[in-house]
Amino acid sequence: MSDGRIVAFPGADGVAPERPGAGLVAVLEALLFAAGEPVTVRALAEAIDGAKPDDVVAGLDLLRARLAGSDRGLELIEVGGGWQLRTDPRFAKAVLSLLGGTPQRLSRAALEVLSVVAYRQPVTRVEIEALRGVSCGGVLKTLLERGLVRAAGHRDEPGRPLQYATTGGFLELFGLTDLAALPTLADRDDLDER
Prior knowledge:
Arc Repressor Mutant, subunit A; 13% strand; alpha+beta; two-stranded antiparallel sheet
């Protein structure tokens, strides 16, 4: 481990197992636990010497199945363009009790602005206000501070208004792999019918 990369897929005893890649799942679990945030397949493969992205994907699938198939307190999810270990939602109350604090809550106005940004990005403040019918400067500032929205450059029109887009933090908060995972109008209609 001269450059910080993991050289083999060792077993629990530190010796490479007889089956090639048998320790890969354990290495992936350790890396995801240590990272604490979503990690891409590419970054995982680069951290493990000799691992190909296809090996990592297979290892992640196996790890997810192992966690889902047992009474464990963790789950592996694909979110924000990467993979992340998270506590099982069943234990949210206990985790909040231990760590203190309250879950992150968003006001109705913040959710409305975030929805407009998510579905129309990049979008200007004027466009958001035209859709909502009210000013949104304070709400946008709050969303920027929370890292859910980012400035996405200036529009090439008179006044060069600032445009806004969502961030990886937005995807992570809502458990989305990417923007394509946002519900569509057809999804909403399906929910209304149920």
